[in-house]
Structures are given as structure tokens and as C-alpha cells.
Design brief:
InterPro entries: LOR, LOR_sf, Tubby-like_C. Belongs to the LOR family. It holds the Pfam family LOR. The structure is a single chain. The chain is built from 25 helices and 18 strands. It is an alpha+beta fold. Among the domains are: 200 residues, Porin (Beta Barrel), CATH 2.40.160.200; 88 residues, 3-Layer(aba) Sandwich (Endonuclease, Chain A), CATH 3.40.960. A twelve-stranded antiparallel barrel has the order 1-2-3-4-5-6-7-8-9-10-11-12. It has a four-stranded mixed beta sheet with strand order 15-16-17-18, with helices on both faces.
């Protein structure tokens, strides 16, 4: 029995307590008997219930009452009475009004529920990340020290006898959805389970959990719980946008466990970060003399959930800002371990049903931009997918594409069902169905994001791709942003889609308005066109002319991508720019990026700069041999195979691994229509042509496996497919050095063939 995904630093495995007297504080009847663990079903914020009583029942038998809370008695002490199943008072949890710290006091009671003697106290660390007891003694008078690591908002955690790391676990808190024997429809979303093993006083555990639940609730700003805050009065004007966030931060400043204002002041500064929404861009590429601008995104309402989305978005932006104060920086890891962040995530999760579709999509995007990996973030994203998939015909194309990209970035596909095509997952199937239904209303940016989402999901859907690209062709005459152009070219390159109409139109727009693009965007365009084998010498000259004044501003990664694009395109000039980029990459002393290093190594070999920058290549190969992550990257190994063969590196484990990856990929592509077409041409006779000896297919020639090899004439024929991550430039240079003749068939030549005879 048990719960999953605990917040504790070590796994919680409950076992029976052999020494009953050691953990008995209340009556013996509350000690869990031998056999199964006790499972109590509790309501979050139990002391905020309405009515005269609330019953705590057995999770496996809702008709079996275990404890009761008989109302909320308000006076200066704000005390809460806990009773047994028959309604007899057991103890009272009190919180003195004027206390300096935030501790809960547990008192024994008389028959009327009035407090008599203090039994023990429950306190928590700053941020409510851990809990502890004070002055706790067993019924025999022996001292007991309990420690906990719980989050009721996250519905996770546990309680230990002694230290958390080495002590005996005596209780566990979890969400009903993680309990393996639980049926979801029978539980409310705000309920949680408390598991207690045999030999442990269940009343003692319940007292600690309820006391901490009250502390956690008080540490949560009332604004987060949907109630009015103390700083807002009936006379206060309604707050909107940044002012609302300012007020939220002030409220946090008045609450225990707050984020310091100095740490998160950036939350209230400026507008929220832009989502992955190209249709909100106003900088467009002119199609004619008339300037056209797209409509801005609708302003967010100043409701609680919309501002919570703003807070999450600004949190993501804040963590990416450099710190110069010398204080400990906020990082995704630090944020994910903060109890207040858990409260924020679970508050959002519990209120998603209230959100409109726009806020839902923007929230999904904001969560992605946090770049935080934690169970709370995963739960929130799964919950967003769950809520979204229930909103058929209710999400606009713009919001649908944002939502799809965000879910794909988090690898959320939804649970597979028999009704989803190919068991894609409910979220993927929902996005697909809604996209097909609304495709005629999709704008350019939404088409880009939709295809990018399916790429990230790893779903190949030829029907959807063809329909989306047909829609793109229909709206090519609309005003496009620079981001639109960059995005669609990247997607086409990743998909290996040789759509001449779209590519030519985008190239016309790009080269007509190169001044409109940033250097990074121009690098991306160069890289995409090179992968599509659509980058000629004239295009390279124009692109470099626009980028040359700002080459020194390129990041190391962009420098590597540009150098790789130039090598992939097959151009031979300008040589001086090749040298500048190589020297610039080598001079930047930063942490090594293996994939960027391999791109540069392949480019240096292709551009015949390997002798001049051999020290760079040696350093790259040394890093690669020590990086085990490369073993799982097929594309990196394919590039590395060319480099190792070009340099004549002696055979070792790295070279054998790279050669095996290249061979496997070559065999996979041998089933392509282009390969079959060429093989068919070699096998059939043509009028006026001498009998041709059939070449060997997938032949081992030198250090490579080539597409076709005519052994009699030592002729190597390779197909340059856009689905292959590199060109044959380095490979053919190496083969020519070994005495072979080489022929390269361009993908565009193959595409434009009208008959098989033209191939000869």
C-alpha cells in the first residue's frame, strides 16, 4: 500500500511499529491494529468547512467514521475541537493571537471540549518545508520527537519518528490519484489521504497533520486562495495588470514564508513575457506598398487566474535575469523545492475549471517558460491537458496552437485510449481533431506552431501535415512577420518537406527585406535553407552582406550554426568569412557544447580548413570521446563519422559507434522512393543506351556505406536527400582521395525528373 511521488527526500516505506507504547499518546483504541495500514480520507482546509461537523472516514469504507471535527469555535485563541467517532472530544488545536512564531498548540480537553493542559506543540521551518514537535511525550512519560516533510497543498509527504533521513516513517500523506486502489470519481479533488501503519497512534498523527495544514493555510496569501486580502478594502479601486501584481507582492510580504520583494520585484515590472504566439507580432514583412499589421492579442482580464498566469510568466523571466547583488540566485531547482511554489502550482491546478480558453493556453505557455521540472509542474500540465480536452469547439486556432506547443514541450500527450487514432494520447488526438475542424481559420503562425508541436510529440501525421501545408500555401499572400518566415522554414527543414511554392515565396520575402531580420533569424534562415538544399552562392553572398556588420555579436551556438550552414550549402566563398567564423568560435572560451562542436568540426573539414584549425578539431574530438551523451544522438554520430574518416583517425570505440550509426541510417533511407527510383533505372534497358551493369546497393566503399557503387568503373553514386542531416561533401572528398570517382544526385534534380530516362 502507499502513495507515489512523495515530497520527501527519501522514499517512504511504512512498516508496523513493534513497540506500541513508544508511540501511544492518546487512548489505546486509537492505535492502528495489526494487519492493514489505516487509510484516512481528509478534506483540505478542514477547519474552513461550513456546517456543524466534518467527518474523517476510512478511505476504503466511506461509511466508517474514524474522527470528527465539531465546528470552529472562535475566540481570541481560535481553537479547533477534534472528537472521536462517537463525538467525544479528544484534543483542541489552538493558535495564540499574539504569538511571535507560527506554532500550533495541542491541548487535552474536558468533556465539554474546553482546553485543560498543553500536550505538545507543532512548528515548521521557514517556508514550511519541514515540521517538528516540541514537548511531546508518550502516555508513559517518555519524550517523543516527530519530524515531517509535508505539503498538504501538494498532497504529499510523510512523518518520521526521529530524524527524517534515518528515523522510522510512521505516516504518509498522498493524493487520491496516486493511491493504487482508489476510484477517481468517488473522491473530491480537494481531498487527500493519510496512511498510518499498525502500532502507531492515529490520533497523534492526525493532530500533527491538521496542525500543519492550518499553518500551511495561514502561510498562503489569501489572494491565492480566492479570498480578499487585508491590504484591499471595499473602498479600494479595482487593481489591474502590474498594479495587481504589485499588490500581490505586498500581500506576500505580509505573509510568513514569503518571497522577499527584492528577489521577485521583477514580477511587477513591465509587461508579461510574450507567449509562443506569432500572430501577435506587429513587425511584418511588407508584401506591397501598403503596411499591414496583425491585431494585438486581447488584453487579459484582471481576474485572479489571469494575474496568477502573469506571476508565473514573470517568474520564468526573472530567473533568466543575471544577479549582481551577491545573493543566492533563483534557479529552477531552487524554485521547485520551495513550498510556496508548490502552493502556487496547486492553487492554479485546483482553479483551472474557472479559466477561459485563452488564459488556459497562456498559462500552459508560461509554465513551459519556467523551465522547472517538478511533480507539481507535471501535475499542473497534466491537469491543463485534462481540462482542455473537455472543451470541444471552444478553443480558437490561435489558442489551440499555443496550447499544443506548450503540451508538446512538456511531453504531455494524455493517456492513450481506444478512441484515439494509433493510441496517440487524448491530448494529441484532441489537438488533431480540433485542428482539422478549424483548419480554414488557421493563420500562418498557428500553422507553424501546430507542426512544431507534432514534431516535439514525435508524431508523424502525413494527412495533417499535407493539409496544414496546403493551408500555408493558401495564405502566403498575407502579411507575414519575420518570426513567421523563420518558423515555417525551420519546420520545413525538420520535416524534410521540399515545398517549392512555399520556399520560393518565403525566399522572395526574405531577400527583399533582409534588413527586417535580426542576425539570429538570418542564421536560422541560412541553416534551414541549407538543410533544404536551397541555398545557392548568390544567396550566401546576400545573407553574409547583411550579417557581416554584426558577426561579432553572434552567440557561440549561432556561429556554429552559420558555419555549418555555409559548409552544408556547398559554396566555396567567401573564404575570409569562413576563417573569421572559425576563429571567432575557437576564441570564445565557454563551456563546450558537443553538438555545436561537431557542427564546427564537420564544417572545418568540408570547407578545407582542417589543417589551419587542427588544434580546434583535436580539442573537439577529445571532448567527444569523453562525452557519453553523444552515444544516444544519431545525427551527431553521423556527422562525427564523416569527420573521423576525413581526418584518418585510428579505429576506436567512438569511431565504431559513429560508423554503426551512419550505416543504420543509410539502410533506413534505402527504402525511400528516391532510392527505389534510381535502382529501377539501373535495372531496366533504355533505347540508345548500352547495357549498364547493375551497381551494388548499400555497398561498403572505403570507410563509408554508399548508396550505389559501380565496381568496374570505381564509381560511387550517392543521393543527397534533405532527410539526411549532412551533405556528401566531406564523404566524397575522402573517397576521391582514395581514388574513387563520385557522382551526387541533387534532391531537387530527382524531384523535377519527368521520366526515368532523364536520370541517365
Amino acid at each position: 500500500m502507499g502513495c507515489a511521488a512523495s515530497t520527501a527526500e527519501i522514499p517512504i516505506e511504512l512498516s508496523a511499529n513493534p513497540d506500541i507504547d513508544k508511540l501511544k499518546v492518546f487512548d489505546s483504541k486509537f492505535v492502528v491494529p495489526e494487519g492493514k495500514n489505516m487509510m484516512l480520507r481528509l478534506q483540505a482546509k478542514v477547519f474552513s468547512f461550513s456546517g456543524d461537523s466534518y467527518k474523517i472516514v476510512d478511505a476504503n469504507d466511506s461509511g466508517k467514521v474514524m474522527f470528527q471535527c465539531l465546528g470552529k469555535f472562535l475566540n481570541f485563541d481560535e481553537k479547533r475541537v477534534i472528537c472521536d467517532a462517537e463525538g467525544i472530544p479528544l484534543f483542541v488545536i489552538k493558535e495564540p493571537l499574539m504569538q511571535v512564531d507560527d506554532k500550533q498548540y495541542v491541548y487535552a480537553v474536558d468533556s465539554d471540549g474546553k482546553p485543560t493542559q498543553e500536550m505538545f506543540r507543532i512548528g515548521s521551518s521557514f517556508g514550511n518545508t519541514s515540521q517538528y514537535t516540541e514537548n511531546l511525550k508518550s502516555a508513559t512519560g517518555n519524550p517523543i520527537q516527530l519530524n515531517g516533510k509535508m505539503s498538504i497543498a501538494s498532497m504529499k509527504g510523510g512523518i518520521w519518528l526521529g530524524d527524517v533521513k534515518v528515523g522510522q516513517p510512521i505516516a504518509k500523506v498522498c493524493s487520491p490519484v496516486t493511491y493504487k486502489d482508489f476510484l477517481p470519481d468517488e473522491f473530491d479533488r480537494n481531498e487527500y489521504l493519510l496512511e498510518i501503519p499498525p502500532g502507531v497512534d492515529s490520533a497523534l498523527v492526525l493532530a500533527m497533520v491538521l496542525a500543519y495544514e492550518q499553518m500551511e493555510q495561514r502561510a498562503t496569501p489569501s489572494w491565492l486562495t480566492g479570498k480578499s486580502c487585508s491590504f484591499m478594502t471595499e473602498e479600494s479601486p479595482p487593481l489591474k495588470g502590474g498594479a495587481y501584481v504589485d499588490a500581490w507582492l505586498r500581500c506576500m510580504g505580509r505573509c510568513r514564508g514569503r518571497y522577499p520583494a527584492a528577489e521577485l520585484g521583477a514580477l511587477a515590472a513591465g509587461a508579461p513575457g510574450k507567449p509562443m504566439d506569432a500572430e501577435t507580432q506587429t513587425a511584418t514583412i511588407p508584401q506591397s506598398a501598403q503596411t499591414v499589421q496583425t491585431d494585438p492579442a486581447p488584453a487579459q482580464e484582471a481576474d485572479d487566474l489571469a494575474v496568477l498566469e502573469l506571476v508565473v510568466r514573470r517568474l520564468g523571466g526573472f530567473m533568466r535575469q543575471p544577479r549582481h547583488s551577491g545573493k543566492k540566485a533563483w534557479t529552477p531547482k531552487r524554485l521547485s523545492s520551495d513550498g510556496r511554489f508548490h502552493v502556487l502550482m496547486n492553487t492554479l491546478s485546483s482553479r483551472l475549471d474557472e479559466s477561459n480558453s485563452r488564459t488556459l493556453a497562456l498559462l500552459a505557455d508560461a509554465v513551459v517558460r519556467l523551465e522547472v521540472k517538478s511533480p507539481e509542474v507535471s501535475d499542473l500540465t497534466e491537469r491543463i491537458a485534462e481540462v482542455a480536452t473537455q472543451r470541444h469547439n471552444a478553443i480558437s486556432p490561435q489558442d489551440l496552437s499555443i496550447l499544443a506547443c506548450a503540451l508538446a514541450a512538456q511531453r504531455v500527450r494524455g493517456p492513450p485510449t481506444d478512441r484515439t487514432a494509433g493510441h496517440l494520447g487524448s491530448a494529441v488526438a484532441f489537438v488533431r481533431a480540433e485542428s482539422l475542424r478549424q483548419l480554414q481559420d488557421f493563420r500562418f503562425g498557428s500553422c507553424v506552431h501546430l507542426m512544431e508541436a507534432f514534431l516535439r510529440w514525435g508524431v508523424v501525421d502525413a494527412e495533417l501535415t499535407n493539409m496544414v501545408l496546403a493551408r500555408v500555401e493558401d495564405i502566403l499572400d498575407e502579411a507575414l512577420s519575420t518570426r513567421d518566415v523563420t518558423g515555417i522554414l525551420e519546420v520545413l527543414a525538420k520535416l524534410g518537406q521540399m515545398r517549392a511554392t512555399i520556399i520560393r515565396k518565403l525566399c522572395q520575402l526574405t531577400f527583399r527585406s533582409l534588413w527586417s531580420f535580426s542576425p539570429t533569424q538570418l542564421v536560422s534562415i541560412s541553416h534551414s535553407l541549407a538543410r533544404l538544399r536551397f541555398l545557392a552562392q548568390r544567396d550566401v553572398d546576400e545573407l553574409l552582406q547583411a550579417m557581416t556588420p554584426q558577426l561579432g555579436l553572434l552567440t557561440r551556438r549561432d556561429t556554429a550554426r552559420l558555419l555549418f550552414a555555409l559548409a552544408l550549402s556547398g559554396v566555396t566563398s567567401p573564404v575570409e568569412i569562413f576563417g573569421v567564423l572559425a576563429a571567432q568560435y575557437a576564441a570564445e572560451a565557454q563551456e563546450s557544447d558537443p553538438r555545436a562542436d561537431i557542427d564546427v568540426a564537420w564544417a572545418l573539414c568540408a570547407l578545407e580548413l582542417s589543417h589551419k584549425y587542427r588544434y580546434v578539431l583535436d580539442g573537439i574530438l577529445k571532448h567527444c570521446s569523453q562525452d557519453p551523451s553523444l552515444v544516444g544522438s544519431t545525427i551527431a554520430l553521423i556527422k562525427l563519422n564523416d569527420v573521423l574518416a576525413f581526418l584518418g583517425v585510428e579505429e576506436d570505440d567512438l569511431r565504431r559507434t559513429a560508423a554503426a550509426a551512419a550505416k543504420d541510417e543509410a539502410q533506413r533511407l534505402a527504402a525511400s522512393p528516391q532510392h527505389k527510383q534510381v535502382a529501377r533505372v539501373w535495372r531496366q534497358p533504355f533505347p540508345g543506351q548500352p547495357d549498364l551493369e547493375s551497381p551494388r546497393v548499400q555497398a561498403a566503399v572505403g570507410p563509408f556505406v554508399v548508396d550505389f557503387f559501380h565496381e568496374k568503373s570505381a564509381l560511387v553514386i550517392d543521393l543527397d536527400l534533405v532527410t539526411w542531416p549532412i551533405s556528401r561533401r566531406v564523404r566524397h572528398h575522402t573517397l576521391r582521395e582514395l581514388g574513387y570517382r563520385t557522382v551526387l544526385l541533387s534532391p531537387w534534380d530527382l524531384k523535377n525528373l519527368r521520366t526515368d530516362a532523364e536520370l541517365l
